[in-house]
Amino acid sequence: MKVATFNVNNVNRRLANLLHWLEKAAPDVVCLQELKADQQAFPLRAIQSAGYGAVWEGQRSWNGVAILARGACPVLTRRSLPGDASDKQKRYIEAAVNGVLVGCLYLPNGNPQPGPRFAYKLAWFDRLIGHAETLMAAGIPAVLAGDYNVVPTDADIYPTRSWSRDALLQPASRAAFRRLLKQGWLDALAEKGGAGSYTFWDYKRDRWARDAGLRLDHLLLSPAVSGRLLDAGVDRWVRGEPGASDHAPAWIRLRPPKAASRR
Length: 263
Description:
single chain, Deoxyribonuclease I, Chain A, six-stranded mixed β-sheet, AP_endonuc_1, EC 3.1.11.2
């Protein structure tokens, strides 16, 4: 079972890129972020023609998340992150696919910092940590995948000081990510890909050509599924395609569950 996450950075503008990648990589489950399309504008017919069922939460101009499943329809369990009913930003969706609960998330960027946007980022992170703890306590086989907008360590960014004031690298952002991992979640890319598994290259200053990347997109596995991890990686070639998103898809491959686990 191959599970991937991809900040597509406008699903309609990058639809050709997305469909090409789906055909070539054939992931079983895909988490998409930054749809930048309202609910009615999601390209469902094209996604279905590619062989995928979908659930999604759209939002015009910004945000928006979706979960795709190859040859199946994801079983929707949540349309938003619990903890703040007043939050209208479409940043979280959750569905069951092939016996695994998949949470697709687009964590707030938080810039400029300090300020209200950074405060919202940390508050959203606290809500995610609370929900993740609930999943962990239930022993659910779960994957929390998406654009976390956090560079976990200095090994996850090219050698530079130019991002030192950015919300992605702030001590509070990194501390929140560590708090999440301490619940028992496995950072699959760090486990299998290691340092330098960049997933994002800014459009500015020729950063793609210089491989001046950051690791922002993460797949975290609960203990009930982490033992099934076979491999993880990044489809860097997608970032080099014409009209590409500034992110590349990151993915994991899981072995099938044992018969006893299925029972």
